[in-house]
Specification:
Layout lengths: L3 E6 L5 H11 L3 E6 L4 E3 L8 E3 L5 H11 L1 H6 L2 H9 L19 E4 L2 H13 L7 E7 L5 H20 L3 H16 L3 E7 L1
Parallel strand pairs: 1-2, 1-5, 5-6
Antiparallel strand pairs: 3-4, 6-7
Helix pairs in contact: 1-6, 2-4, 6-7
Subcellular location: Nucleus
Pfam families: Ssu72
InterPro entries: RNA_pol_II_suA (IPR006811)
Amino acid sequence: MKLRYAMVCSSNQNRSMEAHCLLKRQGFDVCSYGTGAHVKLPGPSVREPNVYEFGTPYKQMFEDLRRKDPELYKRNGILPMLKRNLGVKLAPQRWQENAGDGIFDVVITFEEKVFDMVLEDLHNREHVLMKTVLVINLEVKDNHEEAAIGARVTLDLCNELERTESWEETIDDLISMFERQQRRKLVYSISFY
């Protein structure tokens, strides 16, 4: 693989981690992040989410929710999701605080507001290297089924990018073709490091 990828959603739990897990298994150089202020997981009601700080290990969240209500969190898929996550990496990371993890060629977000936050962060950094980074938003609903579908679409997109000699020269055509094939609208922008 010649490109380095970042998968980004709000809490670095479901959509970004599903894609991270799949791409990692396929041999891609991939990391994942969230852009929210905190990590939020569903709770017993909409008004009672489980809130954690970024950097809280997935294992600690798993144990906490298993202690609170194992049946609820197994039934709604949160415990299996956390188990998958802890097999991929230690803890959720926040995009804005982990800029030092390296430079990415492609950043894929799964929600428009996350796309906007990533672009804002990139635009506010010093552009020392003047290296291009392609930021693409693939809108994916935040549920387990859609995250799995979104991860497979992301894998297809990344495979297309890997086959491209130079995405900078062909990105418009590549995105148009991909949108027709997948019947999904992508939003993309180019930024710099």
